[in-house]
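For the sake of clarity, the format in which proteins appear in this thesis is described at this point. The fold follows as a row of integers, each naming the local backbone shape at the matching residue. One such record is shown here in full, so that the layout can be seen directly:
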Amino acid sequence: MRHVSTRLLTAVALCAGVAISASSVSSAAPNGRPSARTASAAVALGRPASTSGLTIGLSFFLPVPNQAALARFIAAVSTPGSPAYHHYLRRGEFASRFGASPAAIAHVAAYLGAHGLHAVATSPDHLFVHATGTVRAVDTLLRTTIRAYAYKGRRVYAAVAPIHLPTTLETSVRAVVGLTDVPRYRASDVFAPRGHPRTTTCSQMSAGTNPTSGPFTISEIGDAYKFGAFAANGFGGQGQTVAIFELTNYLPSDIKYFQDCTGKYDSISSTIVDGGNGINPYAEVEADLDIEIVATLAPYASIDVYQGPNSEAGVVDTYDRIAVDDAAKVVSTSWGLCENADPTAVAAESGVFQEMAAQGQTVAAAAGDNGASDCLGYRPTRTNPLAGAIGVDDPASQPYVTGVGGTTISDASSIGTTPSSQVVWDTNDVEGTGGGVSSAWAAPSYQHSIHGASGAGRTVPDLAFDADPASGYMIYSIAYGWIPVGGTSAAAPTFASLMALANQANSTTYGFVLPLLYSVGNAEPGTYFNDVTLGNNRTYDVPGYSSARAGFDAASGWGSPIGSAFLSLVPPA
């Protein structure tokens, strides 16, 4: 859960804590620009701890040998009008078509095994070689220093010096993931202000809601965005699977209670990656929010909750498992981090998201809840503590991911007809929708010539849904009962639900849908999106925020999708 008081944690920690190094072995950022080898994202840790008995699990990211060919393939299967449009890779085909060669894999694996690492294994998609080793073995191999610390009752570790990849691996390995297991990734959910009583019975689900301005039941959110058109035509997500990415486990009893109260009975399963992240009822609000939204808006879809640890390796491994399984054609994630905080993870994720695009998997990611200031606290100086504050979230800024921003609903009945009915979410300049221009990724081709998109880098978000906790979503959690929750964490699974319904209604798999969405948004304004023209995402009075305008903008993207229009989501004539 998010609290305003935690947002300055990293800035404070730079003075009092330990700077955690997110080391990248690449000499360039993902868009090819020069970058430093380390990016400090400070986290205040406790006292030093012993490294005795500590083993480190590492993932060596192997870049795609022919990146240009992969990019051409994704463009062909994702661009309307292409002869290959929607002819995706079959499950398991990525390794042979685009993964690292058997020779490159064998070379890396043999070297790691000969230099003190063990349990060496290759990911099925040939993007990673995994290995484990003692602290001494890893320090020696990568010429770094790993230290352990006591942190919130557990031992964590971090490399506190840049790594140096052995020369023989430099051409085969792009990044090394797993040099810290400090939990830094955050969920983009925000509670409504306190003061309401704890409500725990089904009859209290609607207590305090307002069908005009919220908080809303999740069904009312669907009605506001015209999702009802799918149900009216018999589409509820039958035959569709949605993968939900989580860095916290969830309590099935929470979801069962919600389903019993709402009469929704999606099939829900769990996939645990790297041991998951344990049970904590107070941290599971994020998972409850994500699952309950999809269970309501796509009530007959299958939901697979992928649960990994909140660590660098846990994040990358969980995304990779979703890609390798390739069972879900729609993926929702509400977890992220300032894109500049960990270039290593960003680079490794990029390969996985390209794999998903090639396989026809749509990925929806929350744009963040810090407004334009998602990087507040990273790399400040004594004279300018806000240096680098303006920034956007990973993975929402990844070019093959749909970044989903947030709005505030004041009148659900007039969305699309009255400009003030829906504005950019910004609560008292301290929280609001993420948005801006990426400093890690160049402007993708689908944003070229789009008025309102920046040529300096990838612009996010791509679109937006309600995210203000004041007009938020009523969910159930055993820790809090029925409670209104907002944040772009709510917007991402809302869009994921829409894409599952659209896949079914159009008898297709939209996959990497952004080229199509930008095409229809530009050619047919007002047909597929409710344009959001009021508000901004200014936070903490940091200059550089984005304001809404007619058409596309870096505060709300194209605006909020009109659900009924997605019944026939087709390229413009």
